[in-house]
Design a protein that fits this description.
By secondary structure, the protein is mostly helical. The protein has 10 helices and no strands. Helix 1 packs antiparallel against helix 8 and helix 2 packs antiparallel against helix 3. It is globular, with a radius of gyration of 17 Å.
Length: about 210
């Protein structure tokens, strides 16, 4: 499961959590936004620090109302967050992804534990482990990892979607609604999140009548 993406949510919530965490390695870049486009060395974009690049991408995502364009920006954010800047960490993440695909969960967990130990400020290490913990049914540990993701990057819409999925799965609809609303503050054009807000709002309103 390479990094957290939202499409249709059905219960159990595993499909959405997995989708939230997936990013295709060949995702097309959003070249309609100067801040998103990858530049050659020596251009203006190359002077941006990784943090500035991420900040600009999140700003563009918040402003974009076209779902398709927003999806391209979201994919770029996932790719930026997935790059640890360390060849060792990136290799461990590749090994973890392969182990997850082959359903070798114990090996995948070991690789992710090593990633977090070596680089505790690397957000995708926590994010990937949160998804794996969810997949094996350990919601408590998954939520702990999600909280670490959001401590490092509060705008991590994938983690917010994962949090909402867990809260919905455990019957905490009002808290799940708040998580989805936080998601939409970051990624307002996401249709699936919009649908979840509407569905949960109606469900909560119905339970109060």
């Amino acid at each position: 499961m390479p990094a957290m993406r939202v499409f249709a949510l059905s219960y159990p919530a595993l499909p959405i959590l997995l989708a939230l965490t997936l990013v295709a390695p060949h995702v097309a870049m959003a070249d309609d936004f100067g801040i998103v486009e990858k530049k050659d060395p020596g251009t203006a974009a190359s002077s941006l620090s990784p943090k500035q690049q991420i900040d600009n991408l999140f700003t563009a995502l918040k402003r974009q109302r076209d779902p398709d364009q927003a999806s391209q920006i979201a994919d770029q954010i996932r790719m930026e967050l997935s790059d640890s800047g360390s060849a060792t960490i990136n290799l461990l993440m590749q090994w973890a992804d392969k182990a997850i695909q082959e359903k070798r969960n114990a090996a995948a967990m070991d690789f992710l534990d090593q990633v977090i130990s070596l680089k505790p400020d690397y957000v995708e290490g926590w994010n990937r482990r949160a998804t794996l913990n969810y997949a094996i049914g350990d919601y408590r540990k998954s939520m702990e990892d999600i909280n670490q993701v959001l401590r490092i990057e509060p705008r991590h819409f994938g983690a917010l979607g994962g949090m909402a999925a867990i809260l919905s799965e455990t019957g905490k609809d009002e808290m799940a609604l708040k998580a989805w609303e936080r998601f939409l503050e970051v990624y307002p054009a996401n249709r699936a999140a919009q649908e979840q807000v509407n569905t949960l709002s109606e469900k909560i309103a119905g339970s109060r009548t």
